[in-house]
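Researcher: Go.
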Amino acid sequence: MSAFPALPGIAYGGDYNPEQWPRETWREDVALMREAGVNLVSVGIFSWALLETSEGVFDFAWLDEVLDLLHENGIAVDLGTPTASPPAWFFAAHPDARVRNRDGVVMGFGSRGMASHSSPAYRSAIVRIAHALARRYARHPAVVLWHVHNEYGVPVGEDYSEQSVRAFQGWLLDRYGSLDGLNRAWGTAFWGQHYTDWEHVGAPAAAPSVVNPAQRLDFARFTDHQLRECFVAERDAIRAHATQPITTNFMANQAWATDLWKWAPLVDVVADDHYLWAADPDAHLGLSIAADLSRSLGGGAPWILMEHSTSAVNWQPRNIAKRPGEMARNSLAHLGRGADAILFFQWRAGRSGAEKFHSAMLPHAGTRSRVWREVVDLGAKLERLAEVRSSEVVADVAILWDFESFWAQDLEWRPSVDLSHNERIRAYYERLWRDGITADFVLPGHDLSRYKLVVAPAQYLLSVADAANLTRYVEQGGTLLVSYFSGVVDENDAVHEGGFLAPLQDALGVLVEEHLPLREGERCSVRWTGDDAATLPADVWQEALQLHGAEVVARYADGPGADGPAITRHRFGSGTGWYVSTRLDAIALRRVMTDVYADAGLVPRGLPEGLEVVTRHGAEADYVVAINHLEVPARLPADGVELLTGAEVRTFLDVPAGEVAVIRTARSAGGGGRPPE
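Model: Structure:
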């Protein structure tokens, strides 16, 4: 269980930047916050230049005034350390702390995320201001949470400065122990890259051709390590003075510089920022993935939605405004998937700067706007849902999500530019979502015994140890479904001895002899071998498979793999391993999953496909959260009390188009699994 901030009910609010406004606006802000039901705001995240006006010289007077005002009005504070945006004086004093990109260009001032995380000067400065803030505000009654930095790795993760290169050399020495170990791991016999001196080992900067992929993978690991060290330094500086929980805001499925499985144990409570991708007509599916991943990272404990938007954002090619009711659907979908805090960026829309077109709780149009009315309405809804706090989501299915594998797969010179781990996870997740089956996300090395089904949509990189864990899972009765281009390389991005998929041969009963990617736009089909003789459309990818005990469930009807096995099923021990060697979309996957569910003992809910339903389990009751994404009412079988209206529900509830219902029902045993610790 996480150390959640000490607040009654569901936390509601967002980033508050009073330093951007005159003092007379502050009192108007807190009055409107009370009207909207706001009880938590994040303060100080980009205020370094105003708090430390020159090196070691602090001015806390304005922040004292803001925190006192918020406390007087019953509004709690998530106090940020402003270290994502060092002041101009810092870079004037320490020009070598600037980030250098892969092409060797030094990044200038005027943005955010501009400092090298390997810079000793930067590390000293962030510890100094974290100590100063914690010494002053650790006992302030408004402060219930500490917020370190902002969105680590965004916009800058990798840094190719001289300080970073030196730190990388030290990190590699710790990892491999010797140059011989490094040369073996990186396969430096290829292209004559053998190293004889640590000083010759650099960052994988831009080069005439493709840079050693093992080196690039390690540089991604190193970057994540450096970012985490900076977080820990600030966290420990705060903890020397303060007892409140400490967190930082992840971007669970929208930023890739951080391995959040390594970050989650370092925070007291998981917090996530999520923004809809406006170009996606089913962006609510990406939202659900982010929410389930955030919950999974925290071991199933309630988590904080630290940022999302009331309407449009400002940084996408086309920043689409949310439609009426969409903000509430988004917010309550996060709640349904385990969030106990619903926060936005930001409270009041800014008049200046790069984010002035970003929506806010109090928009430029003020309190006569639709967005403001919806903000006030959402605050009232969350008050009525206070009892949902601390209840948990339990899932029967796990999906593998491995940041290191994603880093490796995304490097150059893969068999096809159409290979996408994001797309494959989305397709399998969407199938589960449309079937009403809630999923956790896990690593392949986690304890999987609690799950009826484990899905591996894109596990390109798989260590021998993790493959053995998956094999034991099947042998002991689990159902494992693996998609193509998985089990290809080990942790050093070297192809497994025995070939593609070799470490999963026992579990799946099949090996991949050759990859058969399709040409751009080329399509193919898969013919089911059972009684129904279904034909499923596919594209992008085929494989030539060797059977080693697996039965053929479907064959390629055409394409380079014509007549060869396309989908296989293998009984191993007490469980079953499935392998799907081509790209099927979520619609075509329905036929596959019908048989997979049968093996796993899972039953789809049979609800309208646009009705999203997830259950939170409390100590005394369950809470069924139903979000209707359809343009017509959707019927949900249920008995209990609908908390937003107080209406009694018997047998079923018709959820209006575009609306949300939360039904308190009798306590059940829940699903069959718990997320990994």
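Model: The chain has a mean pLDDT of 96.
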